[in-house]
């Protein structure tokens, strides 16, 4: 099997970026910038195809890469990921050992403040536990994605109407389409620290957008899952992380308003 890496970047010097990321497979790199042009080159024997596009939106960026993907497997990535030596071989080996899997979620090391998941054993991912995995952990069978016409939402994520949640929605759509998704305890790289492009603290918009997301993900269980999220993050809602000084009740009110708005249509 062959693997292709699908990189989403913003205003990058792409050849330096490709070297820094330690790319070890053919790559499609989408660079959101202020011009439209194409270039390609070879790095360590691998073809790098770069599309400079004058547009914004992480979902749009990932779709542009996914629709051009033509290898057996594809791996989503971001500009701040650096791959371990041998990462590509470990990913391919994962799919060879697990032919039942349409999508595998790998471990990527992150700084403590960004920690949301860690796979300790091989297990099936379901609708109720799919909301904590980032795109850079996703590896997929490309033909399956194209067969099911799966793409990223353009309403959620950096550069979109609602701040985040695009990765959770993508897994949700994969599961809804009947794909078999598994997490696997295999490390492939590390995320380099950088300022967030979308999280500016626990403000009203954050909780409102979270309510919209939970309605799309969980339907009638949106309020229950939202309250669970609030309780889980209550200790993190301090003066530093809450620029608007929201109380717990105010955060809950904002989240519920997002759920109500989503019921009326996005």
From TrEMBL:
GO terms for molecular function: glycosyltransferase activity. InterPro entries: Glyco_trans_2-like (IPR001173), Nucleotide-diphossugar_trans (IPR029044). SUPFAM superfamilies: Nucleotide-diphospho-sugar transferases. It is an enzyme of class 2 (transferase). Coiled coil: none annotated. It comes from Gallintestinimicrobium propionicum. This is Glycosyltransferase. Residues 14-122 form the Glycosyltransferase 2-like domain.
């Amino acid at each position: 099997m062959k693997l292709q890496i699908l990189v989403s970047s913003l205003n990058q010097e792409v050849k330096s970026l490709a070297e820094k990321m330690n790319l070890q497979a053919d790559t499609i790199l989408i660079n959101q910038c202020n011009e439209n042009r194409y270039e390609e080159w070879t790095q360590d024997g691998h073809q790098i195809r770069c599309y400079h596009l004058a547009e914004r939106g992480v979902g749009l960026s990932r779709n542009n890469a996914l629709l051009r993907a033509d290898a057996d497997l594809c791996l989503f990535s971001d500009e701040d990921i650096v791959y371990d030596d041998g990462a590509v071989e470990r990913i391919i080996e994962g799919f060879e050992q697990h032919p039942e899997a349409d999508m595998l979620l790998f471990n990527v090391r992150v700084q403590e403040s960004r920690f949301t998941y860690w796979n300790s054993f091989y297990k099936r991912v379901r609708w109720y536990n799919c909301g904590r995995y980032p795109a850079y952990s996703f590896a997929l069978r490309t033909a399956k994605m194209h067969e099911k016409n799966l793409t990223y939402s353009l309403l959620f994520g950096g550069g979109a109407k609602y701040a985040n949640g695009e990765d959770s929605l993508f897994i949700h759509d994969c599961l809804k389409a009947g794909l078999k998704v598994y997490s696997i305890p295999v490390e492939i790289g590390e995320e380099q620290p950088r300022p967030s492009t979308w999280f500016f603290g626990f403000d009203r918009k954050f909780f409102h957008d979270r309510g919209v997301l939970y309605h799309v993900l969980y339907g009638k269980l949106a309020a229950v899952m939202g309250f669970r999220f609030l309780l889980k993050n209550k200790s993190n809602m301090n003066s530093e992380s809450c620029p608007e000084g929201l109380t717990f009740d105010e955060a809950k009110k904002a989240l519920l308003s997002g759920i109500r708005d989503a019921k009326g249509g996005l």
